[in-house]
Amino acid sequence: MTRSCVVEALAGWVPPLRVTNDQLPESWGVTDSWVRSRTGIGSRHRAGHGVATSDLALAAAESVLRGNDSVDALLLTTSTPDHPLPATAPSLAARLGLGPIPAFDVSAVCSGFVYALATAAGWVAAGLAERVLLVAADVYSTMLDPTDRAAGIVFGDGAGAVLLRRGEDDEPGALIGFDLGSDGGHADLIMVPAGGARHRATGRSPADGDHYFRMHGSEVFKHAITRMDGSVSTLLESLGWSVDEVDRLVGHQANARILKAVCERLGLPADRCVGNLAEVGNTGAASIPLALAQAHADGRLRPGQRVVVAAFGGGLTWGSAALVWPDLSHTQVIPHL
């Protein structure tokens, strides 16, 4: 047997402020039926004034640890760090009282959770850690342009946490395969133009709105379908799994039409594609662990099922991973849902 990374516990957390489609700004000129028909989203949660990414990450991490601080490393994946530097993970480790363990951020936008899973699996396989705490958290509300209806109806805030341990490659919960990719030639499709070294090097003040999130929706839509479909297909081929053998696909919760199209291209029945997009919207890197936690809690994920997760995000980045779902006694129902 090889050293494998095994899912031991799972938790999700969203802030209590829930914003339904009927509560969106009147200036956007949208209705509940209009938003649902285009995105599949009925509500999203907002962190609110003074609440940062590490605050959401802390709530999810505390839920998954449940007082157990025996962790060798902490990975935080986010696109909305508390500060440009330092990384947010060390301060999260300190707030959790985990001691001087290695802690660092993983930045792959909405693909961050899958990238961080692969990173954690590498640490375990290399003998660098026996147990890893992986937290995915984003507070997109802090970088959305209040006049940008397209992004405003989609994004929500949230966090998910997974506790991973060393195990055997044939036990339930073992991460048994990955596929990852990127295409930086399309970096401009999802971007915050200002705030980094590229803009600072110009010496110019940011133009109005350059510190806000920007996305070319129609192009992103096409790339998301193609890349997630391709990644899952490549992963299944490497594992020797047929599509019929996949019990559940948990995709990045970006848009219901994207998820439907991916399932159709794969030939996967729609009832095997699970998520919680309608309740929380697109929560960035947190979307997959949030969806996993809720699906496990309500019985849509059951021990022994073959599960594939797939993501797509800015960069462009994408990835997928597979496991046989374990019996998780410590999975926490997501508060406020």
Automatic annotation (TrEMBL):
Gene3D superfamilies: 3.40.47.10. Residues 104-184 form the Beta-ketoacyl-[acyl-carrier-protein] synthase III N-terminal domain. GO terms for biological process: fatty acid biosynthetic process; secondary metabolite biosynthetic process. Residues 236-325 form the Beta-ketoacyl-[acyl-carrier-protein] synthase III C-terminal domain. It comes from the Bacteria. GO terms for molecular function: 3-oxoacyl-[acyl-carrier-protein] synthase activity; beta-ketoacyl-acyl-carrier-protein synthase III activity. Pathway: Lipid metabolism; fatty acid biosynthesis. Keywords: Acyltransferase, Cytoplasm, Fatty acid biosynthesis, Fatty acid metabolism, Lipid biosynthesis, Lipid metabolism, Multifunctional enzyme, Transferase. Pfam families: ACP_syn_III, ACP_syn_III_C. It catalyses: malonyl-[ACP] + acetyl-CoA + H(+) = 3-oxobutanoyl-[ACP] + CO2 + CoA. The keyword Nucleotidyltransferase does not apply. It is found in: Cytoplasm. The keyword Cytoplasm applies. InterPro entries: ACP_syn_III_C (IPR013747), ACP_syn_III_N (IPR013751), FabH (IPR004655), Thiolase-like (IPR016039). Catalyzes the condensation reaction of fatty acid synthesis by the addition to an acyl acceptor of two carbons from malonyl-ACP. Catalyzes the first condensation reaction which initiates fatty acid synthesis and may therefore play a role in governing the total rate of fatty acid production. Possesses both acetoacetyl-ACP synthase and acetyl transacylase activities. Its substrate specificity determines the biosynthesis of branched-chain and/or straight-chain of fatty acids. NCBIfam families: PRK09352.1. Belongs to the thiolase-like superfamily. FabH family. The last Arg residue of the ACP-binding site is essential for the weak association between ACP/AcpP and FabH. Homodimer. This is Beta-ketoacyl-[acyl-carrier-protein] synthase III. It comes from Streptomyces lucensis JCM 4490. The gene is fabH.
